[in-house]
Amino acid sequence: MFVVMISSELAPVAKVGGLGDVLFGLSRELEVRGNSVEIILPKYDCMWYDEIWGLHKIWEELWVPWYNTAVSCSVWFGFVHGRKCFFIEPHSPDNFFDRGSFYGCHDDPLRFGFFCKAAMEFLLKSGKQPDVIHCHDWQTGLVPVLQYEIYHRLGMDRQRICYTIHNFKHQGITGEEVLWATGLCRPEYYFHHDRLLDDLNKTAINLMKGGIVYANHVTTVSPHHAWEARHTNQGHGLEHTLAIHEHKFGGILNGVDYDVWNPQTDRFIPSHYDVWNVEQKYGNKEALRERLWLRKDFKPLVAYVGRLDAQKGVHLIQHALFYALEQNAQFVLLGSGSESGINDHFWHLKHYLNENADCHIEIGFNEQLAHLIYAGADIMVVPSLFEPCGLAQLLAMRYGSVPVVRAVGGLVDTVFDRDHSDKPPEERNGYVFQDPDPPGVESALSRAIGLWYDYPKEFRRLVTNGMAHDYSWSQSGQHYLGVYEHIRAK
User: Fold this and answer.
1) What residue ranges define each of the domains in the chain, with the CATH number in brackets?
2) Percentage of the chain surpassing pLDDT 90?
């Protein structure tokens, strides 16, 4: 099968969040299974160009219709750790992708509207005929619209489109200008509740809604989050649209790159191990303590790794820190805030706890340290207010750290409470709490710390249960292939 991915991110060359990791992992899994995969990306000026091998220009003048004229683009080709990638570089005074950042510009809807148009023009004029076009998040929401309304009449009528939503919070809500720019025009046609009209703002169109309405199949990144998007406010206003199109909407759990995240071979940790010799894990705990100047004592080590923002439950992270210290545990935090106020707060917390030999707060992100924390921690807290899939709990289990999570999104699909789950004992792998408040965190964290102290053999069983689960891309890749085959058969 020939699959073209159209995306605004790809790890490690252009990565802001989990989208980039998903693109890389899924693309590689599809290739391992014998499929041909190509990826189309914007050519940002701020990409990590040293992660691209053999980058060279393959198309000098790709003319992309834009308003009543056309913009000339160059198309570049290169390999990103083995993935075949095409990068579109527009030559326009707008400098769409020469901004020094990936997102956050006032004209983001026009920037990525142009990218969608250019990607479709490239597929058309290069003669590529993929079986499936797989596009991602609001930045590529216009691809299904353009394919159905314009390009299927130009010879691209066999392509089927899978559209994956990684984050419902950002939807690309904008005005009619993007319609005129991309050649869709006819605002009276698209400003309709059955097409692109935003469900909450009757003067705007919603690019993510366009993707949902026009794609052949729509996925999000975990089964439980698909349910949340349909039946709770996690759809961020798209609940009605998802209800109308529920026959083609579902959740497929993200995977983890088990080549990069592998405690048997990880180059960032000093002591390698697997589920059969998990006692070797504790060499990493000692190495982590030495690196962060933590007290060497008979105590469990609790950790948090990730962003510090409202979604992640910053107030619960802070409460977990102080509660762990009260319960005679140690705590390590690695993360940075998406808002200056949050960052400033945790810098203040860092200075306040600087002399505490059982605590270390690291503001920022360090890939090497993240690996060592996953390998050295006994318990990992993930108290998110919402979490479409979640990566931290999957990495924690991969490295034998017991996850303590809130019952939302993909956390529900992957962590099964030791005491209350209806799963068989061998599938229970952590602790889960319901309410996003301090008593909720305490109810789960106290059980985890208590088990570590009082029943070490049972705690080790939780560790090995988590390590035995397969959350690689293998199963998820097969699910996506099933979706592709389903929409091709229509």
Assistant:
1) 2-255+474-488 (3.40.50.2000), 278-470 (3.40.50.2000)
2) 95
